[in-house]
């Protein structure tokens, strides 16, 4: 199985660094109070230090707004995943338990102000590629059974059969969502305003927390213009 960033994406976003944690044999069952306490404390920090009217001016948010605009997604309507989490937090909406691996990556996302997501590897068909959509791909949004197609030129993650995430990190699909039964995952940390070294530190933290709370075997990678493709050994 390969994980690839297309040449067209890297030509348009040459500064892109994507950190990947592959975790296999994890235990994603149950609820962990320590993770939820980390989430709660981080949300409290955000409420102390950020305000909604100026959130979009932060470099780590504005860089995603510019990226979204560049492929035709209006950033006021379609927000990157981390901006959405920050706005929920500033609206006094608490991030509640989903499952351990999602709780962990939501915590790291808001801690570092960076989009983090992932897929259940056992549900992925073939390879994963970050690319510009042709417009004829199929996508079934998370928690729905309605299938649509992305717009031509939209940034999407795809496997060999369908779209895994639309508008880069705006909405994940239903097929490869992570549940308590999930044992093998691919987690992505998406850096447009982060150096490769900064991404390495975040994925090391993600790897450490995954091992601590979910066990399993892990491996980390960074994809960028110098290393656009990796082979994931099954």
Summed up:
With 234 residues, the protein is of the alpha+beta class.
Largest sheet: 6 strands, mixed
Query: Which bin fits the share of residues in helices?
Result: 25-40%
Structural class of the helices, strands and pairings? alpha+beta
User: What is the CATH architecture annotation?
Assistant: 3-Layer(bba) Sandwich
Order of SSEs: EHEHHHHHEEEEEEEEHEE
Overall body shape: globular
End-to-end separation: 7 Å
Radius of gyration: 17 Å
How many discrete domains? 1
Unreliable spans: none
Question: Which fold name fills CATH's third level, the topology?
Answer: Phenylalanyl-tRNA Synthetase, Chain B, domain 3
The pLDDT mean sits at 97
Number of helices: 7
How is the largest sheet built, in terms of strand order?
Answer: 9-8-7-4-1-12
């Amino acid at each position: 199985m390969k994980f690839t960033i297309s040449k067209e994406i890297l030509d348009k976003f040459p500064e892109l660094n994507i950190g990947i944690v592959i975790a296999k044999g994890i235990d994603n069952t149950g609820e962990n109070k320590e993770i939820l306490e980390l989430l709660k404390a981080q949300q409290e920090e955000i409420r102390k230090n950020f305000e909604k009217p100026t959130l979009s001016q932060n470099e780590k948010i504005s860089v995603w707004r510019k990226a979204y605009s560049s492929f035709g997604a209006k950033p006021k309507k379609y927000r990157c995943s981390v901006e959405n989490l920050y706005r929920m937090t500033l609206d006094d909406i608490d991030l509640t338990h989903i499952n351990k691996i999602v709780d962990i990556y939501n915590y790291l996302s808001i801690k570092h102000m960076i989009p983090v997501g992932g897929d259940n590897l056992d549900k992925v068909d073939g390879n994963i590629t970050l690319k510009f959509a042709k417009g004829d791909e199929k996508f079934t949004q998370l928690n729905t059974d309605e299938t649509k197609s992305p717009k031509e030129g939209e940034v999407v993650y795809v496997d060999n059969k369908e779209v895994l995430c639309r508008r880069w990190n705006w909405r994940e699909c239903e097929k490869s969502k992570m549940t308590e039964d999930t044992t093998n995952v691919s987690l992505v940390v998406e850096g447009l305003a982060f150096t490769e070294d900064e991404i390495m530190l975040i994925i090391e933290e993600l790897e450490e927390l995954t091992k601590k709370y979910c066990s399993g075997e892990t491996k980390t990678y960074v994809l960028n213009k110098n290393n656009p493709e990796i082979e994931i050994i099954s």
